[in-house]
Amino acid sequence: MRKLIPAALAAALFIAACVIKPPDFAASPAAHSQGTADLQLVRLAYIPAPPPAPPAPTAPDPDDITAFSHYIHPNAERYAAYISENPELDLQIAVAYVNAGLDVAFFEDIIDITVPQDWLVLVNKRHSLDKAYVPSDLRPALGSNQQLRTAAALALERMAEQMKQEGMRLFLRSGYRSYNTQRSLYYRPTSSDRYNARPGLSEHQTGLAADVVQMYTSAKIGTLRFEKTPQYEWLLQNAYRYGFILRYPKEYTNITGYSYEPWHWRYVGIHAATKMHSEGVATLEEYYGRYLITPVPVPGK
Ligand SMILES: [Zn+2]
Question: What would you report as the CA-atom Rg of the chain, rounded to the nearest whole angstrom?
């Protein structure tokens, strides 16, 4: 007790000294002579420092595929295998390709299409239409004897009309093909999987695919001459505005399963075609894997 009293007294005297005469660092000598300004400076000297800024949020890891909106957790092992086999691929695209089933060989484990009437239906060497499927709204298109589904026919006609105004003609050489027609086309001695679709695996059965030509009489389907026409150049620039995409681009034959077909245009609707155009999505396979699947996130995320 005896020792505490002098200590407490000393502390009290020290505090009193501070209040009466603030430490020199709180105010400059010049300020001492300015009365109330002197007190103001003292008060400012004791304002606590602002709290430290919160740490900047860390940028998402571009290699974290589980953060992708099209990540499907049950596919995790397939993603890992596909990415290690295709290290050059952009990860977003690799995940999309697996979602579209491209990590499985063509013609293996064929998936039956359940909503064939969807404008965005993916028909390829893994996704098959039922042989009984016939679109309900077929109609002749572009003054030809070929049929397309109504939306595709109207879009093609509007597109061809615009091209005509710009001095180009466009004709429809082949539209809807039934399962049986496709079967007879495929089982010819000259056909091959690279160029011809097996029955059920042809987009032409959807009524949404149009093989176009630049001349009505002499131009055959399936010649690369169409690539050299102004019509083709125009379509590359503008077809998306009418809802069409180039379905089998030159650089993606391993993805689509078909050789380059500059004449084959697929109706997917203006929204999807515009999105593909603006985002640089080159194939319907990639679009399907990115936007048309149901995401299944990581449990707990
Ligand atoms: Zn075609």
Answer: 35
